[in-house]
Design brief:
The complex is a heterodimer of chains A (about 375) and B (about 100). Chain A has about 375 residues and is of the alpha/beta class. In chain A, helix 1 packs across helix 2 and helix 6 packs across helix 10. The longest helix of chain A has 16 residues. In chain A, strand 2, helix 2 and strand 3 form a beta-alpha-beta unit. In chain A, the strands form 2 sheets. Chain A has a 9-stranded mixed beta sheet, sandwiched between helices. A two-stranded antiparallel sheet of chain A has the order 5-6. Chain A is built from 13 helices and 11 strands. Chain B has no helices and 9 strands. In chain B, the strands form 2 sheets. In chain B, strands 6-5-4-8-9-7 form a 6-stranded mixed beta sheet, with no helix packed on it. In chain B, strands 2-1-3 form a 3-stranded antiparallel beta sheet, with no helix packed on it. The chains are: A alpha/beta (about 375), B mainly beta (about 100). Chains A and B meet through helix 4, helix 5 and strand 5 of A and strand 4, strand 5 and strand 6 of B.
Chain lengths: ~375, ~100
């Protein structure tokens, strides 16, 4: 029996800010959000006043639904500012599908923007005290990911070269993409020789710091037309907030979110043509390939080796260049979705998007499909 | 809530789970009866990293205490980037923090 939410809604339009570097322009996160929203609405063929569902998250605004609604002149009947960090926007797809299916709204706008780079590059974060960890001065969040990488290397023999493969593959994809922020050549030696931040992760194992905004419009599947990407399934999960509370640093809650999304879609990992996996750090991609079922636990390093996820590899992953080379304005999750929709419009049938939030904490997975997958 | 000292953790009276940092509800079974216990501070390195700044390089590690909970900490007794995962370590209080020696 098909899940009641399967293929009921579609991403009808996508948009991104005009630039990922707005230093000196005076543009605010809300200005970039408005750019992305305008592009997404135009792409969907939807006028602003049709939007009655608003989904957003932010590190800038404590009540971001109110800021975005006011700035865009949207008066939603359904408003959701669920904040699961970078996983938020994939989670919003699931929430939007439920809300539209329940008749609580018809046309949803999922939107995010940040000027993290123009603001000086520090990760914007709401003040949150966790003295049990802060006393020991982890450099948030890279130290937390470094601890996961070190444990994965210890348990499974994963190497720094395999981690570097993830960054090199992302750069190879970025070099095919005019919009990518980082396009200069990058090889494994460059990654290994880059400035060490928190062992075993160098600055090249870490995502970019850019500005930027992204937006998607979600409507009933029938309204989206042939250019819509059907939401075949979605799932979310979280097990911890702080890294010392994560039960096993080599297994994320993506095992749950991915299984839920694939079950709703009636598909298996082997059916996926292209994957967008939130690559805040190189270890993420390896963990998610394992946890989402593309390979067995511990085999993610071998999976990415020898260009496994680069152009021409066994599975196309992060085909815009990802958070490592395309853009990363504080949170990247919305850009997983815009790229997946581009790939479906270009001919792929099944795209998996996987969002990650905080320190491997929140996990959200969605499966998007071409009209033929309905 | 604050623990009486860096050596304190909680033991759930209902399910015996070790709980740290302290709270008013057992995250395993949901019981609200949690008793303070003091750790012997013997543990095993679960994972480790060295944080590099312009000024210094220092260790940040996760250590599994024998009583059954995990803490973020600093391991001493070797270079910050040479702490072996799996090593046995002994904790002590330093500047109101629980740190460990190889």
């Amino acid at each position: 029996v098909s899940h009641p939410l399967r293929a009921q809604v579609a991403v009808a339009g996508i948009g991104e800010s005009d630039s990922f570097d707005v230093a000196g322009t005076g543009l605010t996160p809300l200005d970039l959000i408005a750019q992305a929203a305008a592009h997404a609405l135009e792409d969907a063929g939807v006028v602003k006043d049709e939007v009655d569902g608003l989904f957003t998250a932010s590190a800038y605004y404590g009540m971001p639904g109110l800021n975005v609604g006011e700035h865009l002149g949207i008066r939603p009947s359904y408003s959701d500012a669920t904040n699961l960090g970078g996983a938020s926007f994939v989670s919003h797809l699931l929430h939007a599908a439920a809300a539209i299916h329940a008749g609580l709204c018809e046309t949803a706008l999922v939107v995010y923007g940040s000027t993290q780079r123009a603001d000086g590059g520090r990760l914007k974060s709401v003040a949150e005290q966790y003295p049990a960890e802060q006393l020991h001065r982890p450099r948030y969040p890279i130290t937390q990911y470094a601890l996961a990488a070190a444990r994965h290397m210890h348990e499974f023999g994963t190497t720094r070269e395999q981690l570097a493969e993830v960054a090199v593959a992302a750069r190879a994809w970025a070099r095919t993409n005019d919009r990518a922020f980082a396009r200069e050549p990058l090889d494994i030696e460059d990654v290994l020789g880059a400035r060490m931040i928190s062992d075993p992760l160098t600055v090249r194992d870490a995502c970019l710091v850019t500005d930027g905004a992204g937006a998607v419009v979600v409507t009933k599947a029938g309204r989206a037309g042939d250019r819509g990407a059907l939401l075949l399934g979605a799932g979310e999960a979280h097990w911890h907030r702080n890294i010392s509370q994560m039960p096993d640093l080599t297994t994320t809650a993506a095992t749950d979110s991915g299984a839920r999304a694939l079950r709703m879609a009636g598909l298996e990992a082997q059916d996926v043509d292209v994957a967008q996996l939130y690559d805040a750090f190189t270890i993420n991609t390896i963990l998610f390939l394992e946890d989402l079922g593309f390979c067995a636990k511990g085999e993610g390093g071998a999976f990415v080796q020898d260009g496994g996820i680069a152009p021409g590899g066994r599975l196309p992953v992060n085909t815009n260049g990802g958070g490592l080379s395309y853009c990363h304005p504080g949170m990247y999750g919305i850009f997983l979705i815009t790229e997946a929709v581009r790939r479906i419009r270009a001919g792929d049938d099944v795209a998996l998007v996987h969002g990650n939030g905080a320190v491997l904490s929140a996990q959200a997975t969605a499966i998007l499909g071409s009209p033929s997958t309905a | 809530m604050d623990a009486p000292s860096p050596l304190h953790f909680q033991r759930c009276a209902a399910c015996t789970a070790a709980v740290h940092p302290p709270r008013t509800l057992c995250p395993r079974c949901g019981a609200t009866s949690l008793a303070w216990k003091e750790t012997a501070a013997a543990g095993t390195v679960y994972s480790t990293t060295a944080v590099h700044t312009r000024e210094e390089t220092y260790n940040v590690a996760l250590v599994d205490l024998d009583e059954g909970y995990r803490v973020m900490t600093t391991v001493r007794g070797t270079e910050p980037d040479a702490v072996p995962i799996g090593a046995r370590v002994q904790g002590r209080v330093e500047d109101d923090r629980l740190v460990f020696d190889l």
